[in-house]
Amino acid sequence: MNLDIIKKNSIIMHPLPRRNEIDVEVDDDSRAMYWRQERNGMWARAALIAYIFKVDSKIHIESRP
Prior knowledge:
Elements: H1 34-52, H2 56-62
């Protein structure tokens, strides 16, 4: 994949899972944000699940120092 055609201040996002749309070599590029995007999505889904099962307030209290 020719990453030189992408601007230096761009970011590369992908909803994952990856199939054949994006080469593995892009993983090492500093503009690749899909692993960060995936991690943030995981926490967003965890928060929604906690809210749905009404345990979000318990998590908030237990996480205080």
